[in-house]
Specification:
- It is built from eight helices and twelve strands.
- It is α/β, with parallel strands linked by helices and 244 residues long.
- The chain has a six-stranded mixed sheet. A six-stranded mixed sheet has the order 4-5-6-10-7-8, covered by helices on one side.
- Helices cover 30% and strands 23% of the residues.
- Bound molecules: fe (ii) ion (FE2).
């Protein structure tokens, strides 16, 4: 059994299409939220997620568009994109966002949230102190997260109580160790922020106990021109070239 893990598509149709073309031999997909926001193709991306029958949780941008998170929480560019996204959104797609869950179970002690188990929508797990607190407060083997758009893995060793971080901005393999617990971010499909502009996704291999993270190129210039032509903030197009 292999599960394709995608997150933070952010209305980027070119990136999700490249990722889906690249993913092979998975039995199921899960999406960790932020299907929309920032990008110019929100309806397309929601409909793509529906097409692949993907189990999906909502992100802060999805719920902000659905009116369930206060947009004052967001910076200017994000707020502009949320307001822009809500205009062309079809009613059925708005309902889809509005009804998304906040947590998905993959198997015993393995689950996925958008931000963190303690605050599924808004908390970023960016440092070892935060990860350490989450490991102490929640009992899981693996927690998959999105939200930060940074591909990487925090691991907690039961032997010495140490938390380590490994950057996976160029992809790689995480072999699941029986004596460790993990917080894994497979990166962002549509707006990577880890310095690598290529779209990021993961595959969780339940039988072989491994998570592989992959990067795939997509036609960034086409995505950028759509964002600019839509009248969205220019910074949202520019940042795609740098992966920041
Ligand atoms: Fe996001």
């Amino acid at each position: 059994m292999k599960i394709g893990i995608i997150s933070d598509i952010h209305g980027n149709s070119e990136a999700i299409n490249s990722v889906l073309k690249n993913i092979k031999e998975v039995d199921e997909f899960i999406c960790l939220g932020d299907i929309v926001g920032y990008g110019a193709d929100p309806n397309y991306c929601i409909e793509k997620i529906k097409d692949i029958k993907c189990r999906c949780i909502g992100g802060n941008h999805d719920f902000a568009v659905a009116g369930k998170v206060n947009i004052n929480y967001f910076n200017y560019a994000a707020r502009s994109a949320i307001l822009w996204t809500s205009l062309p959104l079809k009613k059925e797609n708005l309902n889809f966002l509005s009804n998304l869950k906040r947590r998905i179970e993959l198997e015993d002690n393995v689950f996925a949230v958008h931000g963190s188990p303690q605050d599924p929508l808004l908390e970023y797990i960016l440092d070892k102190d935060t990860a350490s607190f989450i490991f102490s407060k929640f009992n899981f083997k693996i927690c998959f997260v999105g939200h930060s758009h940074l591909a990487g893995c925090f691991s907690f060793s039961e032997n010495n109580n140490q938390v380590n971080y490994m950057n996976f901005s160029n992809g790689g393999c995480i072999e699941i160790n029986t004596n460790k617990r993990y917080i894994i971010n497979c990166g962002s499909v549509g707006q990577p922020r880890d310095g690598n502009p290529k779209a990021s996704y993961g595959i969780y291999d339940l039988k072989n106990k491994a998570v592989n993270i992959y990067r795939v190129s997509y036609p960034i210039n086409l995505t950028k021109s759509k964002i600019i032509n839509a009248g969205l903030p220019r910074s949202l197009a520019d940042r795609l070239s740098y992966g920041r």
